Amino acid sequence: MNHVDFLLCVRFSKLPLEEQLEIKRLGPHRPEDFVLIQYGDMVTRTFKKDWFEKKKWLTASTTKSALFCFPCLLFGGLDSVWASIGFKDIKHLSERTAKHESSSSHLRCAMKLGLLGLTPVQPRINDADRLAIEEHNTLTEENRYVLDRLVTCVKLCGKCQVDLHGHDETLNAALFNCVFETMCEGDTRLKRHYNAQPFFHLALSTIQDDLLDCMYEVYREEVDKQLQQTQFVGVQVHEITHMSCNPQMAIVLRYVVDNTVTERFLELIEVTDKTAFGLSAAIQQVLEPLRLTEKLISQSYDGAAMLRDGEGSVQTLMSIRYPNSVFVHCYAHQLNVTLQQVCASRIRELKVFFADLTSFATFFSSPARAAALMQVSYNNIQRPRWNFQSRTINAVWDSQDAILECLDCIRTQPGWDIATVSEAYGLSMHLKEPKFLQLLHFFAEVMPEVDVLQNILQNREIDDSVVRCAVENFIANVKEVRGRADVIAGDGEAKRRKTTDNTAEVMKEACDNMIAQVEDRFSNSDYLVAAQLVDCSLFPKFAASFPAAQLSCAIKLWPSPLRNKDKLQSELNILYQHNQLYAGKSALALFQTIRETGLQEILSETCILLNIFLATPMVSPEPDRNHSAMERINVFARKTLGKERLNALCMLSNENQFIQGKVDFNRKVMDKFAPANNHQVSFLFK
């Protein structure tokens, strides 16, 4: 519509006002394929497209290979060269453009274009029309204020991880209304509207899903903008099961924005094809629109998602599409939980066992029940910490007699409700079941080996030989437990009872799965070694002896981003000598210091290296205290059943700080919910 060829064929003044305003909004057309060459005796001149930025009124025609003046083209400027014929003399372009934009004809046309749409259609507006407009504007302002408070209410529920949906996938109206009514206290404007509009009470449940959709859409747009600005991105994939019991994968992106490391929830995707090919295809389908081919430098999966079949593993298939992405074991995937997921996903008996084991942690999460357990134990045991599966295993195995006594007391003593008594009976049956106790004994011996390996991998000064030694020791110890599986399972006693119990085989298969998973995850530990390059606590040591092995590991992992090895080595050598830059700092603080002091150009390769490791979710020294984005999403998904809105709800749970930091977030949500031409949102006030 704003092309030169179209405007030459029509009379702009005869077009409808809506089309004129649309052409004004689009502005001058600057074709990407426009080429203008002027041949001379001594030199050949070519039009440079930066002239479009110098002269905002310039436009061009590809078919005529000529330049035009956009305002003169629209309003019939007197200079026919710029308004109808087209300008081609590149040699004199500078002086001719200066002369033209100073002409009265051009200025008149430019003024007409600037004032287009601003002058009233009617020269006078009668009093009735003026009153109607004022009334409409007042109502619009009132409606948008109420809508703004509704958005804030939904954000507050997300911040507190309030279940916005019940088990029937509808709004938890009573709770949501309670929160909104609390917001009305002290806000007379909001309360007046709430009391004056009976339909508004019903509309709360009607519009909440639409608000969530709009909020998620605004959030995704902002994340997309950040991804275009960031240098590197790491992806974390975690399989979760929310209350509907449908398996899904949560995708979280980690990157540096505004000199800060951030993790952003991206999307939940349904898991239908659980093969390695199916999982990798589903992940790539989500990532493809983001254009992260070169930016994606790390990938991380939990145990259930890291599968291997005839076509390879998920990380191998992902590396084909994203060649710079290195598989890492990240802090969000605790090793003990990961290995448990592997066993539970592949062995049906263990899935049942871990579900039964989790019921102990759920039962004793109540303060009253935990106090009852402490009372019968006579302080011989510490209060169990149930937040990791390995701790749950140790707590139940070491304290099974005290737990059983506590459960019997709950069943026999007055003061406990029927549901608690019923649950206590079910748990006591587990502790009397031979197969459950056998598996509990087995994992009580295996999980300490997992914890030992995890602790070694978190050592800051780890090297490749230490990793290999730790993995070899883990495999040897697990094999030793595997060799005693028949004894742990009481195989001889089972034969005398003539049973078909396969507990020993289940234990052996679990050992095999753990060994295979650890070998897959830590067969390449170069990223742990390379991470020492940006560990500020090791810089004094590196100042005396440069870490050549660590640098080689980094170059091996990311050869494309780290092209200039010599410059990187020289920069690191200088950096290690300047302790005032890194003293007492983390890698992120060092990165921020370099940016704040304006050294990013001097230490350009070092900034690339820091950016890579900041976007890589490495193993954390305190995994039980680091509440990652993935952990918060996992907790929230277990509490909420609303499948259709789970994306938006997880976004609210995970991204409240991001949302609160954007002052125009509410405005953008309102603009999507009620477009500019329909601010009234009349159905809220029926």
What overall form do the CA principal axes indicate? extended
Tally the helices: 35
Main β sheet profile: 5 strands, mixed
Percent helix:
55-70%
Number of strands: 11
Low-confidence stretches: 166-171, 379-388, 491-500, 620-627, 640-644, 676-686
Number of domains: 4
How far is the first residue's CA from the last residue's CA? 40 Å
Instruction: Give me the Rg, rounded.
Output: 33 Å
Strand order of the largest sheet: 7-6-5-8-11
Query: What would you call the structural class?
Result: alpha+beta
Mean pLDDT across the residues is 77
Residue share in β-strands: 5-15%
Using brief descriptors, characterize the structure shown:
4 domains, extended, alpha+beta, two-stranded antiparallel sheet, about 675 residues, 35 helices, disordered C terminus
Characterization of this structure:
- The chain has 35 helices and eleven strands.
- The chain has 686 residues and is of the alpha+beta class.
- It has four domains: 4-115, no CATH class; 132-221 and 642-685, no CATH class; 338-522, no CATH class; 526-614, no CATH class.
- The strands form four sheets. Strands 7-6-5-8-11 form a five-stranded mixed sheet. Strands 1-2 form a two-stranded antiparallel sheet. It has a two-stranded antiparallel sheet with strand order 3-4.
- The longest helix has 33 residues, at 127-159.
- It starts with a helix and ends in a 13-residue tail after the last helix.
- The model is unreliable at 166-171, 379-388, 491-500, 620-627, 640-644 and 676-686 (pLDDT under 50).
